[in-house]
Amino acid sequence: MSVRIRTAQQEDTAQLRSLMLEYIVDFYNSPHPEDEKLNALISVLLKRARGIQFVAEHGGELKGFATLYFTYSTTRAAEITVMNDLYVAEDSRGTAVAEGLFNACKEYSVKNGYASMLWETADDNKRAQRFYEKMGGKQGNFLTYSI
């Protein structure tokens, strides 16, 4: 499968929105977000000031996306990226799509001088954990909490 990895563009909005809903609702079983909130998020990411999205395209169809957010690490006193999402459509899992998206995020982070790239995945998502270990990721010493 020949896949092109690139930054998301305005013309990707409809397909990207569909993929994001698959990821949010179907994959993570989270509630369907309000349309205006999801549209606002996509708009923010297309501006590339607070984050950036990469997409995997095959034959004019988006097969996956990865989202990087820009933030800071106090302990490093430096800017870092957080790969908040890496999603591949079911029909493209097991191909090079995930590697391409991950590498685009990593290369962007290095090229733009970020101190590190962090990410998290669900404790029960063993497939993702194996993938991240294959890509050279190391499990950190911190636990994640939310409220």
Q: In sequence order, what are the helices and strands, one letter per element?
A: EHHEEEHEH
How many runs of DSSP E, i.e. beta strands? 5
Strand-residue proportion? 25-35%
Low-confidence stretches: none
Work out the helicity level: 25-40%
Overall description:
The protein has 147 residues and is α+β, with helices and mostly antiparallel strands. 35% of the residues lie in helices and 27% in strands. The protein has four helices and five strands, in the order βααβββαβα. The chain has helices spanning 13-27, 35-47, 97-111, 126-134; strands at residues 4-7, 51-58, 61-73, 78-88, 117-119. It has a five-stranded mixed sheet with strand order 1-2-3-4-5, with helices on both faces. Strand 3 and strand 4 form a beta hairpin. The longest helix has 15 residues, at 13-27. It is globular and about 40 Å long. It starts with a strand and ends in a 13-residue tail after the last helix. The model has no long low-confidence stretch (mean pLDDT 94).
